[in-house]
Structures are given as C-alpha cells and as structure tokens.
Design a protein that fits this description.
Radius of gyration: 59 Å
Subcellular location: Cell membrane
InterPro entries: HAMP_dom, MCPsignal_dom, sCache_3, Sensor-like_sf
Number of strands: 11
Distance between the termini: 33 Å
Oligomer: single chain
Membrane topology: Multi-pass membrane protein
Pfam family, one: MCPsignal
CATH class of one domain: Mainly Alpha
Strand content: 5-15%
Family: Belongs to the methyl-accepting chemotaxis (MCP) protein family.
C-alpha cells in the first residue's frame, strides 16, 4: 500500500510538470505547422521540377560522351592492331632497331615482342628487354589464354604515371606482341566526359549538396564526395530508379552537411539500355528560411511561454534536487562502508516524501550498523573458539601418542609372557616323562628324584618370572585404561566446543541474511554491502560445514574410545584370571616339592606318589595351556587397542586440520568486517 501511494504521488507530480509543457507546445506548434504547410508545398514542387531538369541534362551529356568515347576507342584499337600485325608479319627480321623505327613511324608509346616463354626479346624501350611478367600480370594472363588478340581498356602504366592503352596479338608459335599507345589526352577527355566530371560541375551550385551516379547493382560509381564512391546503397529511392527504372523523390536529412535535402532519383537510359540512376540532393535552405521567417513570431511566443513555465517548474524542482543530492552523498558514504555519518535532523523532520525517504535511510543505516557490530563480535568469538579447539586437539594428539607407547610396552610384555608359558609347558612335559620312567625304573628312583627336584626349582623360577610379567601387564593395562578415559573426556570437550562454534556460525548466517535484506532495501546504493553480506554468509556456511565434520569426527572418536575402554576392561579380567592361574601353579609346585621329600623319606610309597604326580602333571599341563591361551588373548587385545589408538590419532589430526581451517575462516571474516566504519 505504501509503495502504491508513493507511485500515485509520483504520477501526479509528473502530470503537473509535463502536461502544461505539452499543451503549450502543441498549441503553438499547430499554429506554425498549418501556417507553413502551404508555402512549403509550393516551394518543394518548384525544386522537384528543377531537379528533374538537371537529371535529364545529365543523361543527355552522358549519351553524347558515350558516342564520342566509342569512336576514339575504336580508332585506338585499330591503330594497335595495325602495329601488332606489322610486327608479327615481320617476325623473321625483327630487331630492336626495327621495333624502335616502327614505334616512331606509327607514333606508339611501346612495342614489346615476347617469345613463347613470355620473355621480352625485342622492345623500343631497352629497359624492358629480358623482362618477364609475373603470374597475375595482364601480359602473363594473355600468354596463357587461348585468345589470339586482346585490347585492354585505358589504364595507368605500372612503371610510370602515364595512361596507356595496351593491345596484344599472338602468333602461331606462341610468340606475341604488346603495343601501348599514350592515352593521357584520351584519359583526360574521358575524365571530362565521365559521370564524375558532370557531378563535380553541377555540385558547384550552392543549392546542390550532392550528386551521385549508381549502377543497377546499387554501387556508387561517381559522387561529388569521393569517399562515398564504391559503397552499396539500399535506400528506397535508389532501388526505385536504378532497378525499377521509375522516378523517385524524397526528403531526408543529409548528415554530412547537417541539412535537409530534396533527393531526386532519375533512371539513366543510354541507347535504350537502362544502366542505373542519377541522384541529386537539392538544398532545402530556401524552404527552411521561408518557413523560419513565417514561424519566428510563433517560436518567440513559444520561447517566452517555456521560459515562464520553466522558471516556475525549476523553482519547485530545485527544492527536491537539493535534498536528493544530500541523500545521494549520504548513500555514497554507506556504499563505501562508512555508516558513522548520521543523516541531519532537518532532512528527517521534513513532512513530505523526501522526509520519508530520509527516515527510511536513517533506519536502514542504524540497522546495518547493529548488524555489523554483531558480526564483529561473532567473528571474535569464532576466532577464540577455533584457537581453543586447536589447543584441545593438540592435547588429544599428545595423549594418543602416550597410549600408543604404553600399548607397545604391553605387547612386548605379552610376547615375553607367552614365551615363558611355552617354557613352562615344556618343563611339565619333561616332568611327566620322568614320572613314567620312575614307574619302570624303581632302581633309579633316587637319581630321578634329584632330577625332579631340579626341574621343580626351574619351574618355580619360571613361575616367579611369570608372576613379575603378570604384575607389569596389570600395571600397564591400568595406565592404558586411564589414558583412554582421559581421551574420552577430551573428546567430550571438543564436542562441546564444536556445538558452540555451530551456534555461532548459525547466528552469523542469520546476521548475513539480515544484512542482505537491508542492502536490498537500500537498492543500488546498498549493492556493495550486499556483496560483503554474501561473503559473510558463505563464510558462515563454511564454518557450519566444518563444525558438522568436527562433530562427526568427535562422535566417531567417542565410539572408538568406548570400544577401547571395553577392551581394556576385558583385558583386566583376563589379567586377574591369569594371576589366579599363576597362584594355583605356584601351589602345585609346592605340592610337588612336598611329594619329592616324601619320596625320599618313603621309597615304598613311590608308586603311590608316582600316581599322584601323574595326576598333578595333567593338572599343571592344563594350567599352563590356560596360561598360554591367556597370553595369546593379551597379545590380541593389545593389537586391537593399538589399532584403536591409531584411529584416534588420525581423528585428532583431522580435528586439528578442521580447527586450523576454521581459524582461517575467522580471520577472513574479521578482514571483511574491518572495512566498515560504525
């Protein structure tokens, strides 16, 4: 509704200014037009009759000139043929002296005799002897043609400034002669008889602004303005006279002389053949002067009326122009990004359309200034958050490196533990063999008992080492579990920071949208700010994209951390089970020691003890197999933990790269908003 109201007021204002001027112009112009019409019509008819007379005189002169030039050309052709035939008739006795005497007797300018290869052999001009025409030259073209003779039109000699008429006659053996007659006077006569000569003559009349001759192809062959010769015309008058053969008259503006002319196009028919048309442009100056004198009084009234009315309209519009100029200067400041200059109160307080425009610009300036302030604050917050995110990523990467080193140590311990377990299994197997030998060799019981005692000591040493490795494994497992828990906490911090950045990016995008809306309201003056707002919006969208990528990475990191924690918990249970198995093994070895002592004290109970040892041996083998399986599970667990840590390290690197890109975006955003003055 507001836009419609302004448009209506603008339409009324236009009517108040334009309609009075139009009414005054129509009334006064009508008086001048009707009073001058009849004078102009009579003068134009008289000019048309004069133009037709000059065109008919032009055609009569051209017909006379055509007949004269035909007679002259026939005479020159016959003279050339006579000279050429005399040369070709005396080929066997030709010499340069003969050619020179013949040229002098016949009063011809040049005689050149060519052999069948086109080389000048004899000539009355020594410089031409030995000369050979290049391809494309008239001499070369005649030589390769099948024509027996050829008469050229008068042309300018290629070696001098003279005009010559050349003719060629060919002999039976391919030899030929070239005869040239000086045609300077003939050319002068031809030039004086030409279309151009007549047009130059009639154009001396001040009332004739141009004269031209155009052929049936509408190409200008002659014109009093030499620069126009050769152009192709396409106007209606030229087509009617040169092609259709009818008289055509028209008035048009002759731009070259800045005047209106009456163009008379008359068809040219020579010897019954329609060859083109002549066009004569007669000056309309007399007509214009007559009309001008007739309407001077009318024009004077018009000038006075326009001056008075123009003064009134100027007084009214000058007020609006001054205010619009001040508003334009204000918009130019805003276009350059300077929003610190406020619109003066006298413009805002005006009670008209210009006052409303001033108020709207002032409101827009305030809104844009607030938006820029919010963008600046947001960009600072974005930069701070990206720096914090980078620091957290670096801490997480350091923690991941520590986890990797701890897992490597655990893997080394698990490998050594597996080797010790294999040694224990081997020792127990050997113990079983000894027990079986004890059953078959009672006589060697004492020796066997000593060997069993020695093997028992070795088994205890192995168990002692196994206990130490188990303690170390348990310690490193606790350290790895604690590091993984710390990594999980760091990932949660990164997720919180990413959410905060995403919120900031969303707010920045909203601010950029508001800025674009305000710039659109400002029109052309706000176009530069709209470009900046679009750049801010793109940066905000990039920030939002990076925060989404960071969120995905953090979520994946949390899942992998939980998996690692679960794996370490399972590893802790395995270590506890392993410790219990070691304790059981230790107690079994103690029983073996007691059995050996009993064996020494009671040989008669050897068989019974041997059976118990066999049973105990089977138990120990099972325990050692369990220990071996536990060691293998420990090794597999450490490999899985190592893979998880490597994935966490890669995720930390991606987070660090994203945070660096986010920092660069924040710097660009700061650079964009620095160009504004608020």
């Amino acid at each position: 509704m507001k836009t419609s109201s302004k448009s209506k007021r603008g339409s009324i204002k236009t009517k108040l200014i334009v309609i009075p001027l139009i009414v005054v112009f129509i009334v006064i112009s009508s008086i001048g037009i009707f009073s001058s019409y009849f004078l102009r019509t009579s003068l134009r008819d008289e000019m048309e009759n004069n133009g037709v007379y000059m065109a008919e005189r032009f055609i009569a002169n051209i017909e006379d000139n055509y007949r004269s030039l035909e007679i002259i050309n026939d005479f020159l052709d016959n003279k050339i043929k006579s000279a050429g035939k005399m040369v070709m008739g005396n080929e066997n006795m030709l010499s340069n002296e003969f050619i020179k005497r013949l040229a002098e007797d016949l009063e011809v300018e040049q005689i050149i005799y060519y052999n069948s290869d086109g080389v000048a052999v004899y000539s009355n001009i020594d410089e031409y002897i030995g000369w050979k025409a290049d391809k494309g030259h008239a001499v070369h073209n005649f030589m390769i043609s099948s024509d027996k003779e050829l008469m050229e039109e008068i042309r300018k000699d290629s070696e001098s400034d003279n005009y010559l008429k050349y003719g060629y006659i060919k002999g039976s053996e391919g030899t030929f002669v070239q005869v040239g007659i000086n045609a300077n006077k003939v050319q002068e006569l031809t030039d004086s008889f030409s279309y151009q000569s007549f047009l130059d003559e009639i154009s001396q009349d001040e009332q004739i602004y141009y004269g031209l001759f155009v052929d049936k192809n509408l190409q200008v062959l002659a014109h009093n303005n030499k620069e126009e010769i050769g152009i192709i015309l396409d106007d209606e008058g030229s087509k009617a006279a040169a092609i259709d053969g009818v008289l055509f008259t028209q008035e048009w503006y002759y731009e070259e002389s800045d005047v209106n002319v009456l163009d008379i196009s008359y068809p040219v028919v020579i010897n019954g053949e329609h060859i083109g048309a002549v066009s004569i442009g007669l000056s309309m100056d007399k007509v214009q002067k007559t009309i001008k004198n007739n309407i001077i009084f009318v024009v004077a009234i018009m000038i006075v009326s326009f001056i008075v009315l123009g003064f009134i309209l100027f007084s009214v519009s000058n007020y609006a122009v001054k205010i619009i100029t001040r508003l334009k200067e204000q918009m130019q400041y805003m276009e350059k990004g300077d929003f610190s200059n406020d619109i003066s109160e006298d413009l805002i307080n005006k009670n008209d359309e210009l006052g409303e425009i001033s108020q709207a610009i002032s409101i827009m300036q305030t809104s844009v200034r607030d938006i820029i302030k919010n963008v600046i604050d947001t960009s600072h917050s974005l930069a701070t958050s990206s720096e914090e995110l980078t620091a957290i990523s670096q801490q997480s990467a350091t923690a991941a490196d520590e986890i990797a080193r701890a897992i490597e140590e655990i893997a080394t311990g698990a490998t050594e533990q597996a080797k010790d377990t294999e040694i224990g299994v081997l020792s127990i197997s050997e113990l079983g063999d000894i027990v079986m030998k004890n059953e078959s060799h009672i006589g060697n019981l004492n020796d066997s008992a000593e060997r069993v005692n020695r093997l028992k000591d070795e088994g205890l040493d192995v168990l002692k080492v196994l206990v130490e490795k188990t303690d170390i494994n348990s310690k490193y497992s606790e350290e790895v579990q604690q590091v993984i828990i710390d990594t999980n906490e760091s990932a949660e911090k990164i997720a919180n920071a990413s959410e905060m950045i995403k919120s900031i990016a969303s707010q920045t995008n909203l601010l950029a949208l508001n800025a674009a809306i305000e710039a659109a309201r400002a029109g052309d003056a706000g176009r530069g700010f709209a470009v900046v707002a679009e750049e801010i919006r793109k940066l905000a969208e990039q920030s939002n994209k990076f925060t989404e990528e960071i969120g995905t990475i953090v979520e994946d990191l949390n899942n992998k951390t939980l998996t690692a924690v679960k794996t370490m918990e399972e590893l802790e249970d395995i270590v506890l089970s392993q410790t219990k198995s070691v304790d059981i093994t230790n107690s079994k070895f103690a029983g073996i020691a007691e059995a050996i002592e009993d064996m020494k004290m009671a040989i008669n109970e050897v068989n019974h003890s041997s059976d118990e040892i066999t049973i105990k041996k089977q138990d120990i083998i099972k325990i050692m197999e369990n220990l071996s399986a536990i060691s293998e599970e420990n090794a597999a667990g450490t490999e899985e933990a190592s893979a998880s840590v490597e994935e966490q390290t890669a995720a930390m690197e991606e987070i660090a790269n994203s945070s660096e890109q986010l920092s660069v975006i924040a710097e660009k955003l700061n650079d964009q908003v620095k160009q504004f003055k608020i």
